[in-house]
Amino acid sequence: MKDPFGCHHSKVGVYVYEDNSVRIVISTANLYYEDWNHYNQGLWVSPVCPKLPEGSTEKDGESPTGFKEHFLKYLQTYNLGILKEWIEYVKNADFSQVKVALVYSAPGKYYPNSNGNHLHRVASLLSKYCNLPKKMTPDSEGPLSWGIMAQASSIGSMGKTPAEWLRGNLLRSLASHKQSPLPSNSPATISIVYPSVDNVANGYFGLKSGGCLPYSKATNDKQKWLQTYMHQWVANAKNRTRAMPHIKSYCR
């Protein structure tokens, strides 16, 4: 791997059936008991993707969103011989019924308009498909000010100020829409949902519940400004407040 600090952190399953049809499963859970039984997780399961007719090419059976192309690109970034067989199964499958877009990331440096993944692809997709409604009244703030909720299970270094990454990259990408791709000064706010120490202590497994929530004190001490953006994890309506979140979700 070229990047000594990079890693593939995805959780992906490629399932091949007796008739050579394929199903893709993408989750937020690692492959061990605690992740699947103790924490809040997210799971996406594709429809069954049948094998293409003989003589088809890998460009056949594409999803309306380009899912197949991007999934193949992601698998190829591993550059591992053991994956060649699985890549062939994907190439020979019909993904035309897959209606979601795939955004993948792999270790490395990426720039807008270069290879279409990472946060840059999120911004690109929102700029293409997100059409915000107009103001209801001339005096209303309107949808441009709609806030963004970001929820994750780990937090890293974001810089000395919100402008360095949180607002300069993440918010700017998530606030993109058809009328304003990559807005440089969005009126939208961003809120980060992350369990507090009390949330963890009151979890089903006490402080051990924090095992899935890496955020070091050293990193926190360098970005005290982040506290003003943070909100506790509460899911009383679903009786999940005491189950810590390993899921990652973003909405507006």
How would you describe this protein?
With 252 residues, this protein is of the alpha/beta class. The protein has 2 domains: 12-91, Endonuclease Chain A (Endonuclease, Chain A, 2-Layer Sandwich), CATH 3.30.870; 142-251, Endonuclease Chain A (Endonuclease, Chain A), CATH 3.30.870. 23% of the residues lie in helices and 11% in strands. It is built from 7 helices and 7 strands; from the N terminus they run ββαβαααβαβααββ. It has helices at residues 33-38, 67-77, 84-91, 118-129, 166-174, 197-201, 217-222; strands spanning 12-16, 22-27, 43-45, 148-151, 190-193, 230-231, 249-251. The strands form 2 sheets. A 4-stranded mixed sheet has the order 6-5-4-7. A 3-stranded antiparallel sheet has the order 1-2-3. The mean pLDDT is 91. It holds the Pfam family Tyr-DNA_phospho. Its main location: nucleus. Substrate binds at residues 11, 248. Keywords: DNA damage, DNA repair, Exonuclease, Hydrolase, Nuclease, Nucleus.
